[in-house]
Amino acid sequence: MEREVNEIAVGLDIGTTKIVAMVGRYNEYGKMEVLGVGKSKSLGVHRGVVNNITQTIQSIQQAIQEAESVSGLKINDVTVGIAGQHIRSLQHSDYITRPNADAVIDEDDIEKLCNQVHKLVMLPGEEILHVLPQEYKVDGQAEIKEPVGMYGGRLEANFHVVVGQVTSIRNIGRCVKSSGLELSDVTLEPLASANAVLSQEEKEAGVALIDIGGGTTDLAIFKDGIIRHTAVIPFGGNVITEDIKEGCSIIEKQAELLKIKFGSAWPGENKDNEIVSIPGLRGREPKEITLKNLSKIIHARVVEIIEQVFLEIKNYGHESPKKKLIAGIVLTGGGSQLKHLKQLVEYITGMDTRIGYPNEHLAGNSDSETTSPMYATAVGLVMDGLIHIKKHKKTVKKETLASAETASQPEAAVNEKTVVEEENHRVDLKPRKNILEKWTEKFKEFLDNAE
């Protein structure tokens, strides 16, 4: 059991409608195997933002307990996703002048450049979450993907900067800690969903991922394999349910069932005489609702959501030939299961569309429930957690070897040195991953100070 614990990762998706805890590990073929899933109704979250800490803690504990009983493993640390209406992104370019142009550009130069971006002045109460380098320029030579190893005096880069509200982020951290868990990693939810459902070819060709959740709709745009734009739109499936509730004068539970069972985003599909009868409340007459009217209500709201997302895609510059998203749109999240949504999105945007199932990296024998678009974010978070563990192991291994070679000291001394180096947590990997890891470390420190 102990051996497995080192190799498993847990993703915690704190959503507006549900909280999902997913336990997973890599199988011998390098695919992700889901060992257990726990889910609970999310009561203290509104549009991706925690607004009731006590209720959120209870929901997290419930989901974790269920995942523990299914997988038979004790959960200590989790990888958490951050989303919510407070997330925004901006493009920024920055440069550094290197003191010695004849020296090779190394990781430290890139780190220095990224740290400079972290010093950007934000609006009050906002904090930079991710600084993701896109292309670099060395002495005016543009479109360089990997500047390490080149010579040059001026290193310049375009950055995709993701910004969020300090209090909202701190609240999520506090909920996780109060649930008796450790934060092993923090990821932006649109990025996690993208990892789970998109193939590398799609990211290269250009693709927009639309994750329709309960409270928010997340957008992530990739082109040439690099994240280009992220946005969170504060509408999701719950707004559609709310509209059905108001429009048909029924209770929320019935509205949700109606949406799932009979809902369609395309009113033309329903005939005029298709009627569904809903039992009345406590001795009242049953209500009769035509499916055409139901679809009209859903259609109106879905069009609004899609048009907002399409506006973001246009703002990114999808219409210019160089930024064209060849792979079109991928829809995921619970809201993507609405009937005829794919056709409606294609009709509004004129872009190829498919529904994204998170089976890209899952083992072949996975339960059909876990390959549902509803679990895309959770699957992505587990993948992020596993990658994080893998990297950490590699680092420790490298450093153990290095320290064993440099010193022919007694074994205890070597181990001591390894521990110290492990605490220093130096990761010899590609710069982009490096930056994210450093950010996670800083973020954890920030949460500890906030306690």
How would you describe the overall organization of this protein?
The chain has helices spanning 2-7, 53-71, 107-118, 166-178, 189-197, 200-205, 237-248, 252-262, 291-316, 341-349, 376-406, 411-424, 431-450; strands at residues 9-14, 18-26, 32-41, 45-46, 49-50, 77-82, 88-97, 126-138, 141-144, 154-165, 182-188, 207-212, 217-223, 226-233, 275-278, 287-290, 329-332, 353-355. By secondary structure, it is of the alpha+beta class. The protein has a domain at 237-302: 2-Layer Sandwich (Nucleotidyltransferase, domain 5), CATH 3.30.420.40. It has a five-stranded mixed sheet with strand order 3-2-1-6-11. A five-stranded mixed sheet has the order 14-13-12-17-18, sandwiched between helices. Helix 2 (53-71) crosses helix 4, helix 5 (189-197) packs across helix 11 (376-406) and helix 11 crosses helix 12.
Largest sheet: 5 strands, mixed
Instruction: Please state the average pLDDT score.
Output: 85
Shape: globular
The CATH first-level class of the domain at 237-302 comes to Alpha Beta
Report the radius of gyration as a whole number of Å. 24 Å
Structural class: alpha+beta
CATH superfamily of the domain at 237-302: ATPase, nucleotide binding domain
Q: Helical residue percent?
A: 40-55%
Low-confidence stretches: 1-5, 410-432
